[in-house]
Amino acid sequence: MLDVVQEAEANLSPMQILVLRILVEEGEISQNNLVKKMARDKAQVTRLVNTLAELKLLTKEQDVLDKRSFILKPSAEVRQIVNCFMAKEQQLVAEMVNGIASEDVEKLEALLKVMQDNLTQ
Fold it and tell me: How confident is the model at residue 89 (pLDDT cuts 50, 70, 90)?
């Protein structure tokens, strides 16, 4: 997976790609909600966000309703970066499940979802 990230965008870490992917999916999100969604330390997410803002890959605006909070929005080029990554990721997954029956792949996806849900509860 790291190779896929490096091929998609050599200057970004997997965690930075994850932040950008969430931004593309959400359109915009508060920094606090991003912390919750990523289930990571607030300081780590702040460092990621600040680096991505310096690279002009996202904008960080003060929330008009809560002056203590920031709203994060992806820049125009981010969608292209994320789409490139997702295409390479889908290609990798297709290679990984090659030769496995579709029913077994569905069972695996369901099990992985349960495992992920167990970690986020």
Answer: confident
State the Cα–Cα distance between residues 1 and 88, nearest whole angstrom: 9
Torsion on CA atoms 8, 119, 93, 17, rounded to nearest 10:
-10
Burial class (CB in 10 A: 0-12, 13-18, 19+), 66: exposed
Q: What's 27's DSSP letter?
A: S
> Domains of the chain (ranges plus CATH)?
2-120 (1.10.10.10)
Task: Name the phi and psi angles at 12, rounded to 5.
Answer: -115, 145
Distances (CA, A) of 106 to 44, 95, 109, 119: 33, 16, 5, 20
5 has pLDDT over 80: no
State the DSSP string of 29-81. EEHHHHHHHHT--HHHHHHHHHHHHHTTSEEEEE-SS-TT-EEEEE-TTHHHH
- Report the C-alpha gap between 27 and 41 in whole angstroms: 22
